[in-house]
Design goal:
Layout: H1 2-24, E1 43-48, E2 51-62, H2 65-68, E3 69-70, H3 74-83, E4 91-101, E5 104-108, H4 123-129, E6 139-141, H5 147-150, E7 154-155, E8 158-159, E9 165-169, H6 170-176, H7 192-205, E10 209-212, E11 222-226, E12 235-241, E13 244-248, H8 256-259, E14 266-267, H9 273-290, E15 293-295, E16 304-311, E17 314-319
Parallel strand pairs: 5-6, 6-9, 9-10, 13-15
Antiparallel strand pairs: 1-2, 2-4, 3-14, 4-5, 7-8, 11-12, 12-13, 15-16, 16-17
The structure holds zinc ion.
Domain Metallo-beta-lactamase: 93-298
Signal peptide: 1-22
Family: Belongs to the metallo-beta-lactamase superfamily.
Length: 329
């Protein structure tokens, strides 16, 4: 044993000596390579059965979790985020999802377009990076008419999708496209009315907005499920093929590090907090027990993963493993 230790010490001495030499021989000129910055194009691709799914990043923005949490104090939110090595104003995502269903190109939500300033509006670029064009999109399915989900219908004053039908839950359209409802919401939500109406308008004018009722059949393999609470007509979409399932759940979760361990925490952007909490608890528990893949608009990009139950009303997020190849969830 003793001889082994002596043997091991020799390379260490050598390494220290060469380290000292390296320090003496550093070039005297200052290094001049500028930092490049930026990130890889914002898309991530995987498969659900034979359907190709592409997660798209519209942008990121500092999420004011300290100011918008309902049902937890700022200190509680801060402590939970610290457990995940995150500051109070951590970077929030704006994700959308493109699905190629046997040649039919379907988009779930559109990102924020210009409605979040420079923090959003990357969807068009992400679609192009992923090898498609917005002109190819056949159908856009909206989970709810908030700025960061419908705003990307228009970019720089121009409608983004030249042929797509925009499918909106009827209850959602009835609420946000009617200004009489503006008086019933808090001040955070009031500006959503004019902003969202403006981006839906060009599609209404060209006859390409289609409203659907709860329980309606849309595209074979994509089932809408009403999940009201965050908004009156908030709708999630279940994609199924070959025994595999992926739930596009819109804004069921805004602050993953906070709301998976405690689904009772809500957010001031919720239209009806008790209903939003009930919808979240139901969908989280269902996705966990069914072992569905989940795609979230505000979960760290690509926002795709599974949910594991860790207690009576506690859960954790398990991100999908990265792959360059076909992933069978
Ligand atoms: Zn929302």
């Amino acid at each position: 044993m003793r001889s082994l230790i002596l043997f091991a010490a020799a390379p260490l001495a050598l390494a220290l000596a060469s380290h000292a030499m390296a320090q003496q021989t550093l070039p005297s000129a200052a290094p001049s390579t500028a930092q490049v910055g930026g990130q890889a194009p914002g898309y991530f691709r995987f498969f659900v059965g034979r359907f190709e799914v592409t997660a798209l990043l519209d942008g990121t923005h500092p999420f004011p979790s300290d100011k918008v949490a309902v049902g937890a104090t700022e200190d509680q939110v801060a402590a939970t985020l610290k457990d995940d090595f995150l500051p109070l104003r951590y970077e929030g995502m704006i994700n959308a999802f493109l699905v190629n269903m046997d040649g039919r190109l379907v988009l779930i939500d559109t990102g924020a377009g210009n409605l979040y300033g420079k923090d959003g509006g990357g969807l068009k670029r992400a679609i192009a990076a992923a090898g498609y064009t917005p002109d190819q999109v056949d159908d856009v399915f909206i989970t709810h008419l908030h700025e960061d989900h419908a705003g990307g219908l228009v970019l720089d004053g121009q409608p983004v999708f030249s042929k797509a039908i925009i499918h909106i839950p009827r209850k959602e359209a009835d609420f946000w496209l009617d200004n009489r409802n503006q008086a019933t919401v808090n001040d955070l939500l009031k500006p959503f009315f004019p902003a969202v109406q403006k981006v839906v308008l060009p599609y209404q004018q060209s006859g390409r907005v289609k409203l659907f009722d709860e329980g309606a059949a849309l595209v074979p393999g994509l089932t809408p499920i009403a999940a009201p609470g965050h908004t009156p007509g908030h709708t999630v979409y279940l994609l199924q093929d070959g025994g595999q399932s992926l739930l596009f759940w819109g804004d069921t979760v805004h602050m993953a590090p906070v709301q998976f361990p405690d689904p009772n925490v809500a957010i001031r952007y919720d239209w009806n907090v008790p209903m939003a909490v009930a919808a979240r608890e139901k969908l989280i528990a269902q996705a966990a027990s069914e072992k569905w893949l989940v795609a979230g608009a505000h979960i760290s990009f690509p926002g795709v993963g599974h949910i594991r139950r860790t207690g009576a009303d506690r859960f954790e997020w398990v991100p999908l493993n990265y792959t360059l190849n076909r992933t069978q969830p």
